[in-house]
Amino acid sequence: MKRKRALFAFGVLAGVAALAACSHEQARLSLNANYGLFYNDQGETVALAYGLPNSDDVALMLQCAKGSARVELTDTARDTAATAIVLTADGRRTSVPVRAEASEAGESKLLTGQLPLSAPALQGFRKAGVIEVSSGRSRYAITVAQAQRPGVERFFRVCG
């Protein structure tokens, strides 16, 4: 009987601890299953957009002037109180200070910031093809499909 009570008490404590830990975690977003990562040469600039093909439905945009080695990062603001976007790839982490801005359509807020092309998380992304994006209380991961790898490599080559 003592053993059952001890196990019950341990189970209750473990459950409470797990709930407490979960309450501080970021919510993993389920973005559109049709999202992909697309390279776009825009003349003076190049971009990698994570969203639906041929649309304005974009979750994350990496953009740079050709040869500048400076990347502008834009993400849809799911938490307008966020002060940074944290990128994690291949064990490397980069925190990018951001500011909230209204989108061109004025319908949503965007988080924008800048970082060097040499940032550890961007280089990890280039190598591994996977990056986790988090801001405020939300996070999501981007995995580059094999067919999209040449566009990612072109982005890094043209930006640098």
Describe this structure in words.
The chain contains three helices and eleven strands, in the order αβββββββββαββα. By secondary structure, the protein is α+β, with helices and mostly antiparallel strands. The protein has one domain. The strands form two sheets. Strands 2-3-4-5-9-8 form a six-stranded antiparallel beta sheet, covered by helices on one side. The termini are far apart. The N terminus is likely disordered.
Structural class comes to: alpha+beta
Mean pLDDT: 81
Percentage of residues in strands: 35-45%
Radius of gyration based on Cα positions: 19 Å
Quaternary structure state of the chains depicted:
single chain
Number of domains: 1
End-to-end Cα distance, whole Å, is 69 Å
- Helix content range of the residues, please? 25-40%
Query: What sort of overall outline do the alpha carbons produce when their principal axes are compared?
Result: globular
The tally of helices reads: 3
The major sheet is characterized as:
6 strands, antiparallel
Placed side by side, the strands forming the largest sheet appear as 2-3-4-5-9-8
The topology string of helices and strands comes to HEEEEEEEEEHEEH
Q: Count of DSSP E strands?
A: 11
Which residue ranges are poorly predicted, with pLDDT under 50 across at least 5 consecutive positions? 1-27
